[in-house]
Amino acid sequence: MLEGTKIHTSSQMGIIFDIAKDTVLFLLLSCYYILESLFWTLVPNAIRPMKSLKGDVILVTGGGGGVGSHLAIKLARLGAKVVIWDINKEALQKTCTALIEEGYEIASYVVDLADRASVYATAEKVKKEVGKVDVLINNAGTVFGETLLELSDTAIETTYKVNILSHYWTVKAFLPDMIKSGKGHIVTVGSVAGLLGTYRCTDYSATKFATVGFHESLFTELRAHGHNSIHATLVCPYYINTGMFDGVTPRLMPMLEPDYVAETMIDSIRKNEVNCIMPGSVRYLLPLKCLLPAKMCWDLMHRVMKGPQSMMDLKRKPKVA
């Protein structure tokens, strides 16, 4: 009996010692991480080391218009081999024409991201015709702009298929080759609406919350298995002036311009940043929803920011049959 007690006590002491050791190490490393973050925040991009994207095969979903089109053009100018996917053939051709006129090559594919089989089949075509994808930017998204009871079941399913389920198919298609080569970068375009629930966006916000969870879980899997050379960047922008949120009238902050968003995203990719929230000021407001009383948060959103009111004039999208 006494022996059993001694062994149990020894084991407990070992556990306590390990916890104390790891906690002290964590605190020491935290000081370094904070100083490092402050240092790189203060250093201008012009003089900080940025990885080159020249020669990299970069795939952008939703590359036919909006931020996706700006990304394709800017990445091509940096020397990347750009591949764009979109369901809109005319939009794809417009982006391709703009790049070809500048003297760049680009590969485009008409893909319905809501169709898993189409995603997998097109991914195989890209591998055969272009090569291994080095950077995957899951940028495509859709929104219908209806309240829950106005949303059709098909619209809800479409939003989930495009905004989050497609991320599973694209990552599963391209990540294995990244791991084999020891080089890769996965970029997930979420939204501030994926960090804070938004009026008339029960489908959109929910899928963007899901992209955040998907991306953060994927990041932990990559790090836990030692794939430190496979980078992952989560992008959460505020409303973007692309037409997706036509009619929205934000009170405190203007909509972001797609050119600015694309430029900021590329800088974030080249710096291997883990998180990219736009504008940066939003990251300081988000913790308030957990720290403040719920009634106070609602009053801040409804009375000061007028979030729901700003969404009431969102132009509805065509009904899905």
Automatic annotation (TrEMBL):
Give the Gene Ontology MF terms in alphabetical order: all-trans-retinol dehydrogenase (NADP+) activity
Q: Could you tell me which InterPro entries the record lists for this protein?
A: SDR_fam
Keywords, sorted A to Z: Lipid metabolism, Membrane, NADP, Oxidoreductase, Transmembrane, Transmembrane helix
Residue ranges of the TM segments: 23-43
Q: Which CDD domains does the protein's record reference?
A: 17beta-HSDXI-like_SDR_c
Topology relative to the lipid bilayer, per the entry, is: Multi-pass membrane protein
Primary location recorded for the protein, binned into one broad class: membrane
A Pfam family (short name) is adh_short
Q: Name one GO cellular component term.
A: membrane
Kindly list the places in or outside the cell where this protein is found, as annotated in its UniProt entry: Membrane
Query: What does the UniProt function comment say about this protein?
Result: Catalyzes the reduction of all-trans-retinal to all-trans-retinol in the presence of NADPH.
What family does the entry list?
Answer: Belongs to the short-chain dehydrogenases/reductases (SDR) family.
- What this protein is called in its record is Short-chain dehydrogenase/reductase 3
